């Protein structure tokens, strides 16, 4: 039982807050914690119950003594079946190892995504306003703009398709 008491040693508040977990992950962890506590409570209640059967009380209450004798005889002859659960335990341990590997991989991916997002956010915060950009800077950032413009000019089209619909006709000015 000592090897399986990791849930008891876990500080659930730190797990949910310090790791930055949110949403369904936190909900799943809370559900696991609740199931674990319920199972532990039920186990403790069952362990506290008496396991001895008082056949003398049944003999005093029941008129048919043969039934009590038969039940007592079968009770004393009963031997619980033992099962070799090492295979299941090994499968569970292998699953745990795989789950830990997957969790570590997920953690690494999330860490990398957070770093990328922080870089993007920093770029957004330090970027110049759009109004301050020059045409040359925009063209340098996106070369396809110059290519598209050159293509339209070579075909004799001086108006960008959809421009009038979007911005209106300024030729009246």
Automatic annotation (TrEMBL):
<comment type="similarity">
    <text>Belongs to the ATPase d subunit family.</text>
</comment>
<comment type="function">
    <text>Mitochondrial membrane ATP synthase (F(1)F(0) ATP synthase or Complex V) produces ATP from ADP in the presence of a proton gradient across the membrane which is generated by electron transport complexes of the respiratory chain. F-type ATPases consist of two structural domains, F(1) - containing the extramembraneous catalytic core, and F(0) - containing the membrane proton channel, linked together by a central stalk and a peripheral stalk. During catalysis, ATP synthesis in the catalytic domain of F(1) is coupled via a rotary mechanism of the central stalk subunits to proton translocation.</text>
</comment>
<feature type="coiled-coil region">
    <location>
        <begin position="29"/>
        <end position="56"/>
    </location>
</feature>
<dbReference type="GO" id="GO:0005743">
    <property type="term" value="C:mitochondrial inner membrane"/>
</dbReference>
<dbReference type="InterPro" id="IPR008689">
    <property type="entry name" value="ATP_synth_F0_dsu_mt"/>
</dbReference>
<keyword id="KW-0175">Coiled coil</keyword>
<feature type="coiled-coil region">
    <location>
        <begin position="100"/>
        <end position="127"/>
    </location>
</feature>
<keyword id="KW-0375">Hydrogen ion transport</keyword>
<dbReference type="GO" id="GO:0045259">
    <property type="term" value="C:proton-transporting ATP synthase complex"/>
</dbReference>
<keyword id="KW-0472">Membrane</keyword>
<dbReference type="Pfam" id="PF05873">
    <property type="entry name" value="Mt_ATP-synt_D"/>
</dbReference>
<keyword id="KW-0999">Mitochondrion inner membrane</keyword>
<keyword id="KW-0066">ATP synthesis</keyword>
<keyword id="KW-0813">Transport</keyword>
<dbReference type="InterPro" id="IPR036228">
    <property type="entry name" value="ATP_synth_F0_dsu_sf_mt"/>
</dbReference>
<dbReference type="GO" id="GO:0046933">
    <property type="term" value="F:proton-transporting ATP synthase activity, rotational mechanism"/>
</dbReference>
<protein>
    <recommendedName>
        <fullName>ATP synthase subunit d, mitochondrial</fullName>
    </recommendedName>
</protein>
<keyword id="KW-0496">Mitochondrion</keyword>
<keyword id="KW-0138">CF(0)</keyword>
<keyword id="KW-0406">Ion transport</keyword>
